[in-house]
Design goal:
5-stranded antiparallel sheet, acyltransferase activity, transferring groups other than amino-acyl groups, alpha+beta, 307 residues, globular, N-acetyltransferase domain-containing protein, 8 strands, 25% helix, single chain
Length: 307
C-alpha cells in the first residue's frame, strides 16, 4: 500500500483546480495553495508503468550498500545555499543509501531520487492526483507543472528532506525495471513543510508523506518496504526516535498497515474539518527502535495509497 501519509492538501475542491486552470497568469508558487511548497503533495491512486534502469542488484535481505557514484552537490535544483560540514556528511549519506529487498514476486531497490528521474516521478504524481480528484485529462499538464514546482522547491532543502523512489523487477524477467513507488521523508524542522496537514505534527520530528505505489503493483509488499526504507533512513539521518505520518480515516488498508508497523494514533481531525472540504485524518506516531529491525517480507499491500 502506498503507505504513508500524504502531506499534500490534496483534499481541495475539484472546482478550485478548475478555477486555477482558467487563470491566464499562473504563479506556480501561488496558483494552487495545496500544491505550494508550504503544503505536502497529494495522495495517489493510479499511475502507468515506467521503465527504469537501476544500478542496484537484488538481495535476499535488506541492506545498505554503496550505489554507483552520484553527487547531489551537482544537482541543478539544489541551489547555491552553503552547506555546513554536517550537512555535507548527510548529503553523502543520502547519495549512498540503497535499500534492497527480495520480494516473493520480484526484487525491489529503493534509493534517493535523482535529477533525471524527476519528470517521471512528477508524471506519476500528477496522473494519480488527477484521477483522485476526478479531473479531466486536460488538467494533467497543469498538475504536472505545479507538482514539479513543488518538487524543485523541496529539492532545495536537501539533506533535511528527500524523495525516495523504488524500482521493481519481476522475477520472470519479462519486463525491465519499473518505477514501483515514491515517498517523501522530512528529517527535521528545516525540512518540514511550512503548512503541513492537520493534525499538525511536531516540526522538528521526522515525518513521512506523499507515498504511493502504482495500482498494478499493489499487494506485493512494496508499500510496506517503502515505509521500512523511510524508517531506516531516518535512523541514519537523525537522532530523533519518533516519526509521524497522516492517514485518512477512510483509508482502512493503510491504517491497518501502519498499526501493524507499530504506529499509534495520537490525534484525529475534528469533524469540523469537513467544512473545509478535506477528509478527516489521523496523526500517527511510532517510536523507532535503537537498532535496525529486518522488515517483514510477507506483508502485502492492500491499498497503495496515502492520505
Amino acid at each position: 500500500m502506498a503507505a504513508a501519509a500524504i502531506s499534500l492538501s490534496l483534499y481541495s475542491d475539484r472546482q478550485q483546480v478548475q478555477q486555477q486552470h482558467s487563470c491566464t497568469n499562473l504563479n506556480p508558487t501561488k496558483g494552487l495553495s495545496f500544491l505550494s511548497s508550504r503544503n505536502p503533495l497529494l495522495s495517489l491512486q493510479k499511475i502507468d508503468r515506467y521503465n527504469f534502469k537501476c544500478s542496484c542488484s537484488s538481495s535476499n535481505s535488506n541492506s545498505v550498500t554503496p550505489s554507483q557514484f552520484y553527487s547531489f552537490l551537482d544537482d541543478p535544483f539544489r541551489g547555491s545555499r552553503f552547506l555546513s560540514n554536517e550537512e555535507l556528511e548527510k548529503l553523502k549519506a543520502l547519495e549512498s543509501f540503497v535499500y534492497l529487498q527480495e520480494l516473493e514476486s520480484g526484487s525491489l531497490c529503493i534509493r534517493a531520487m535523482r535529477t533525471e528521474e524527476m519528470d517521471l516521478t512528477v508524471g506519476l504524481l500528477a496522473e494519480s492526483f488527477a484521477e483522485s480528484m476526478l479531473l479531466p485529462l486536460g488538467y494533467e499538464a497543469l498538475l504536472r507543472f505545479l507538482v514539479k514546482q513543488y518538487m524543485i522547491e523541496r529539492r532545495a532543502v536537501m539533506p533535511h528532506a528527500v524523495t525516495l523512489v523504488g524500482f521493481y523487477k519481476e522475477k520472470s524477467g519479462e519486463e525491465g525495471e519499473q518505477l514501483a513507488g515514491t515517498v517523501e521523508v522530512c528529517f527535521d524542522k528545516r525540512g518540514a513543510n511550512a503548512s503541513p496537514p492537520s493534525p499538525t505534527p511536531p516540526k522538528n520530528s521526522p515525518y513521512i508523506c506523499n507515498m504511493t505505489v502504482p495500482k498494478q503493483l499493489r499487494r506485493r509488499g512494496i508499500g510496506w518496504q517503502l515505509l521500512k526504507a523511510s524508517e531506516e533512513l531516518i535512523t541514519q539521518m537523525t537522532s530523533s526516535k519518533e516519526v509521524y505520518l497522516h492517514c485518512r480515516i477512510i483509508d482502512e488498508a493503510p491504517f491497518n498497515m501502519y498499526i501493524k508497523a507499530g504506529y499509534d494514533v495520537v490525534q484525529t481531525d475534528s469533524i469540523l474539518i469537513l467544512l473545509t472540504l478535506q477528509r478527516r485524518k489521523h496523526l500517527m506516531c511510532k517510536k523507532l527502535p535503537a537498532f535496525r529491525i529486518t522488515p517483514e517480507s510477507d506483508i502485502s499491500d492492500s491499498g497503495e495509497e496515502l492520505p
